[in-house]
Amino acid sequence: MKKIRLQVNGTWRSGWAAPGQTLLEFLRTELDCTEVKHGCGKGDCGACTVILNGMAVDSCLVLSLQVDGSAVVTAKGLGTKENPHPLQKAFIETGAFQCGFCTPGMILSAKALLDTNPQPTKAEIRRGLSGNLCRCTGYRKIEEAVTAAVDYSSKNHGSTEDSTH
Amino acid sequence: MKYIGKRVPEIHGWAKVTGQATFTDDLRLPGMLHAKILRSPHAHARIRGIDVSKVLQLPGVVTVMTGKDTPGIKYVAQVSDMYPLAMDKVRYVGDPVAVVAAESEEIAREALSLIEVDYEVLPAVFDPREALKQGAPQIHEDKANNLVLTIKRDFGNVDQGFAESDFVFEDEFSTQAVPHCNMEPRSSAALMNTEGVLQIWSGTQSPYFVRKEVAHVCNLPISHVQVMEIHCGGGFGSRSKYCEDEGVTALLAIRTGSPVRITFSREEEMTTTRIRHPFNIHLKTGVKKDGTFVARQMDLIVDKGAYCHYGPAVTGYAAGTAASHYRVPHFRFTGDVVYTNKQAGGPFRGFGAPQAIFAIESQMDTIAEKLGIDPLELRLRNANQSGDTTACGWQITTCGLEECLQKVVSSTNWQEKWKAEKTGRFRQGIGLATAIHVSGSNVFPDGEFSSIEIKMFLDGQVSVYKGSGDTGTWANTVIAQIVAEELQLPMEKVRLISMDTETTPQSLGSFASRVAFEDGNAARMAAIQLRNYLLESASARLQVPGEELQIEQGQIVYQEDAEKRISYGDAVFHSPRCVGHLLNSFYQYVPNTVRLTPQGYANVSAAYAFSAQAAEVEVDTETGQVRVLRFTVAQDVGKAINPIAVEGQIEGALAQGMGYALTEELIVDPETGRVVSDCLDRVMLPTVMDIPQEQIFLVETCDPEGPYGAKGVGEIGLNPTAAAIANAVHNAVGYRAHKLPIEAEDVYYFLHPEKR
Ligand code: FES
Ligand code: FES
User: What is the ipTM of this complex?
Assistant: First the structure.
């Protein structure tokens, strides 16, 4: 066991990391970041996606001991109810979720895509979301939402960067 | 109307886009224990003994429980045949044998390896046709030949019908097992509180079914079980009645006195929860020369797996669908529900209809081809019509089937594509299929009703109490819209409390496409009643006749003189009905339907929905690979209370239907009975890359019984999809699929028989 520090959504947090423990387990059990979802634990579903040092990763495939000192962004860290992140606003307006279990991961994969490629093509959006499974929506509204978020962002001539970074 | 028919955002949206919607595994209760289930490695074995002595020596373990430590009561289900933990026998790989509760999941998992079970391995049987044979291993002591029961239907005079037919068609079809693959793995948490009430959290569609089953296996009165509100990460039928972990969690909570949770691994979710039943289907249809249907007979062998769960109801619904899909004067059905040593089936979106419709709609194209009738024409000739009573007694008040077919055909340029010559390596084809489905179904002894309670506060806002769950279908949003409409309140002023058996009034649950329809009717009536109470109070207060008052955005206004007005809050305060500063309204909706009898003749639903779908595919003749290019759907939704929600249901159903047709399968090793496709990767769910173009038309027939005319929409979108794809594949390359999923290998060998 080792105490590690992570910057989660801009705030430094610490907790006990154990050998073999994944970042997903660390976030959920040590830090109670339950907005990061456990769908499979082996890289198949993308529900556990977080942004780790600027890159979208399946947190179930990363060991907690390896990320001491890193910065993590979860879906909770993107915007506020009054001032939602363009992706959050677009997901709500488009209706891009049903049960909402895949949604945090889906939004973070989309965010990582838009951060590096603010004007993605339809094919690029699809590729960016291809590691995230959704059993409810049939994906159509999710694609629409990401497209809408691109529009909002370019209209606000801002970026899709969140406030914590 | 302000909210009805509008694209209103989901009311739990902010919680969902931030990940703050709380699912059972997200709960944090002080002192919570974590439990893991030890499961059988054998498909069929007798338990000679279980040695748990080493387990308690492991630090962090709190308790270990086997069947012997429980009251030994089986779940009720439809045929009571399963204990929460095996008593003396295991019947499939994955059957729960023991459970350990510990301080952490890791410790509980480690502890499982310390349990020693002495098994006497028995011969197992995995094919239901083998299971029916003399001398097959007997899975349940009381069921000879492993036959749970046979569902029979006989309407009209089928033999005479076949005799009068010009042609009789007979075909065999088979369909596969599919796991639901809800993104949230099963999880349940329980706590015995100091009042002796067992509180249980379980993402469920039907809290009252959960309450019934948990109370039963724990030997508690139902008043001592409270199912708590929690988000559910997808239902699709898998959470529609009860799940077998709920009883185990509850028993552990009672035993330990601590809060306990069991969360399944993905592998457990895939290999031990209820799945879509595989069917073997024999379909015989008699037709006249002009294509008119005269008689239909369907005989099923339903692979039940190791336990019955709701298999008889699923089989019965397949019968209802087969008796009602298109006009069929004479109808006969047998459905043998057969135990095998495999994971058990249960409700799954469509409830037996997708299997039956795959057969009916596939054969439909064969009939059209043989008779030289256009497939569209054949469907139109036999289409259900408003005012029809089907062979099994379903009374169709409004029917948009014909309109749906025409819409799909005209917007796809169907005739041209259907007849186009198919050449080259990549060949395109188009296929049609349709469906019928209930809006709620009067089948269970638990009753058929929905109730809604609304409380208005002194600030003029309301809380709506709804007994059924919302697994992500937007049911809560739709109910809130209805209340907002009738009370002319902004959506933010309507709060939804759902599925808490202690506080929300009882409803059957959210399955059988019933919530928008039945809960919707209850919500509408409860809201109208509350509005009348407000008007009554305002009328007395303002000294003007009630009919001349108007309600708008929290105010009740006298039409003649707008100065004369009173807020909702004041109307609540001054109402003689106001109790504890609240104005309450309650309504129980009971549809005018008939409970299904063993003979199977009854009008089980108050409204029937219809759908027509066209699938366009491309087949690679060099690999046999099928790719769906486009879906066109026209669905008789009655009235779309929230078009986003309705489209979402259809789009989600199409993806599931496409997976059902082409890739998804729970594969079981025929030697050991072990599930091979035990992870999401191997079941091959569609990803965003697989989604074709889609065009969706909502046909609004405005059913007189539906709230604002609405019908059920949750399931029907999946029912015809596999058949439409199968028909498109046939149109493209001439391959007639008799089994699902349609595998590239089979298409390839059909096209290249010499390579076999
Ligand atoms: S939980 Fe990490 S990919 Fe599924
Ligand atoms: S919304 Fe339920 S899994 Fe995507």
Answer: 0.96
